[in-house]
Amino acid sequence: MDNNGCLRHKLVELKILIRKIKFFFERSVLEGSWSQLLIIVFAILVVSFSGGLSAYWLTDGFENWEKSVWWAFLRLTDPGYLGDDQGTVLRTISTILTVVGYVLFMGTLVALMTQWMWRLVRSLEEGRTSLSLKGHIVLAGLDQRTPEMIREMLLSDNRLNMFLRKFRQSKLTVVVLTSRPGIEAVQLIKSELGALWGNGQVIVRFGRASDPDDLERVDITNAAVMLIPQVENTQADARASTILAALNHVLKKYDRPGPLVITEFEQEESSVIVQAFPAINCQPIHINSIISKILAQSIKHAGLAKIFMELLSHKDGHEIYIKEFPSLVGKTIKEAEEYFEHVLPIGVLHKNKDGVELMLEPSFVINDADKPLFMAEDISSIEFSNSSQKNYSKTELRPLQLPDMRSRSVLIIGDQLRAASLQKELDSYTDFTAKVDVVQDFKTIDLKKYDKIVILPLSGANVRADELDQITIHKFFMLRSILMNIDHHPDILVELASTTAAEAFADEGRCDVIVPAYISAHLTAHVGLRRELSHVFDEVLGPNGCDMTLYHASVYNIEVPRKYSFAELKIIVRSYGHVLIGLRIALDENKHRRRVDLAPHSSTEYELTHNDRLVVLH
Length: 618
Known about the structure:
Blueprint: H1 3-31, H2 33-58, H3 65-77, H4 88-125, E1 137-140, H5 146-155, H6 157-167, E2 174-178, H7 182-193, E3 202-206, H8 212-217, E4 225-228, H9 236-254, E5 260-265, E6 281-286, H10 287-300, H11 304-311, E7 319-322, H12 333-337, E8 344-352, E9 355-359, E10 371-376, E11 406-413, H13 416-427, E12 432-439, E13 452-455, H14 465-485, E14 491-495, E15 511-514, H15 516-529, H16 533-540, E16 548-551, E17 562-565, H17 566-574, E18 579-588, E19 593-598, E20 605-608, E21 613-617
Parallel strand pairs: 1-2, 1-4, 2-3, 4-5, 5-6, 11-12, 11-13, 13-14, 14-15
Antiparallel strand pairs: 7-10, 8-9, 8-10, 16-21, 17-20, 18-19, 18-21
Helix pairs in contact: 1-2, 2-3, 2-4, 3-4, 5-7, 5-15, 10-13
């Protein structure tokens, strides 16, 4: 091989060596903080030895090379020595070492420490560390309903206080376990909760509830409650089953009883899966069945949607409470009602061999295991009076004048699958028939033949909730324009995917709005704080429970127009075994402007007209 060929070969080998060094350096830097620190230490040693040996060989100021290397290390680390050296060569080497020291120590090390701190903060923000808590609530999953669910739990003062006393905690801690990146999840919840976020009661952890290791990281064995809601864009029932299996594994591993688990199931038949995990204390909630009943009831009676929404929210008026009074044991429901003036007794939850049943019959005798139900704005207002309130004379009882079978022509704007479940619920009524047509395009249809129009959001569409609502709102205003042109004014029921979109319907008198996400979030939050409420909601809102109906006063042989106090109306309705929970007052019936008063004070007087309706539970 000639000299040129040998030179080229050596250059190629040199390039390969440089490439290997660069690759090794790259991998070492990216390996982590400890590798970076070792590289800096190596660089300091190289500079110290190079500077020290240079000073030893080029000057006569050192007895041996060890002292010269130590001298170089001191100049490298502390610039204060710079003026102590004598001689041009030594000062030059000292200056070079001092400048290089600034780069290595003040530059590289500071940058490394900054990176360390940034990674630490980032890791903490992502929620990858383990928790050590007790009596907390674990919320599995994150979607648009999660902040509303958390807000309802944090602001439900009375139920929250009972929950905290039960688990001996000073404040509620909610842990959200989500597969979303930690910072993204924190920002989403923080922006929705506002000031509630700042009190440190909400913790976000990155992970999957179906992973036993992630459940252990949120200290699931010491949790009081675990909520498994349906999450957008997931197979809800399959997801719930997988989470229950992971939880069952953790509980067996630690041989602990574990938390109460509130699980939302999309299909009612899927709830039998809880029987496969006897070690888990699970309370299933059949959200879709409840939503179908609420929709069907709202089709049957305009105005009920607002009542259902109010009963599930702490901020919108009245709620249903359970409060026990030993003094009521042995009394009939009718006798018990006479001891409460400022709140509305509804009935009692009675446990029998088939489960729990809501008893409304006035003659039912309350025992010590029964749980009385009340409708009130606040649980503190439910007070037992030492003397019964018998201020009204008995009413002559005449036969109940139930209305004839009502028939309505209903147009559902939506897909067939959603409409089918709604049709099934409507078919279960014995006093109401609905002729249902389902379409997606209403522009070519004769709208005048319909008494009720229902707009459902698209299902199965891979779009965000706010985008679904934009489509629904567009359909509504297009529909309203057509109805105005043909001078036809049917009742309209709109289902929305998010709560914020409901503001667009604030001034729409002919339109009822229902938000299933809002209802399910509040329902799950309340049941999480007090399990017995699941039976209440099943009885009041569930498909097999009581019916909430709007009746004309003539049904109870009440003469109109005439002035009545709410107490008088309540006694008359109660004498038929039904419970009057409020009134729907017609403000302008031609424009469908109505006001709903739930559980008003007994002394409140109403000038009833033919257009007013009694809100009755039976």
